[in-house]
């Protein structure tokens, strides 16, 4: 009983002290993050840190984002019930689970087979049947013939280009972190027409570089 109380207190503190103070104020987003049991998507050896304001190691030099970054990402994407979501970087499956509660369907892809397998188990345990999982290299884009309402990229790229925004439907939104340490910027991109995009910088953060993504070489004359 005490353990459950402590977990619920930690979850409540996470919402109040981390998300709300970082301008995550959309009640539907807060409710989803509160409802999806983050501790059950956290590697067992780090479970006591599930609600801490820190990145949690997953292996392969990858991490679970801090709760406040997860919250800001999901809030910025403004996912509607009818929308199709693509996630690049499945990780533990937690953000896919949250987005699946908000949208119609989530397609999530990760380069690491063990991440895909673990996330599939986590998602199945919570009865989320509107998520499809793929293993593959999406560093340059994914299923270019498909278009999505929402695209969430959970790793960073050194320089911005159009590799992901091309897969947005008109009116669709893309979240991605751009730059190189020590300064990276989270960006929200909205496709306003077939040829026009609105690109907005929304906050500063740091994320591991998306696997197989490198900056273009700089030529010095």
Features:
about 220 residues, alpha/beta, Rossmann fold, 7-stranded mixed β-sheet, two-stranded antiparallel sheet, 5 helices, about 30% strand, globular
Q: Could you name the ranges where pLDDT drops below 50 across 5 or more consecutive residues? A: none
Name the CATH class: Alpha Beta
The H-level CATH homologous superfamily, spelled out, is Vaccinia Virus protein VP39
Round the Cα radius of gyration to an integer and report it.
17 Å
Oligomer: single chain
Helix and strand run: HHEEHEHEHEEEEE
What is the number of beta strands? 9
**Count of separate structural domains:** 1
Structural class given helices, strands, pairing?
alpha/beta
| Individual helix count | 5
Major sheet: 7 strands, mixed
- What fraction, in percent, of the residue positions are helical? 25-40%
Shape label: globular
Architecture (CATH level 2) name: 3-Layer(aba) Sandwich
- Give the integer mean of the pLDDT values: 94
Question: How big a fraction of the residues is strand?
Answer: 25-35%
According to CATH, the fold-level topology is: Rossmann fold
Calculate the terminal CA-CA distance, rounded to whole Å.
Answer: 68 Å
Query: Major sheet: order of its strands?
Result: 5-4-3-6-7-8-9
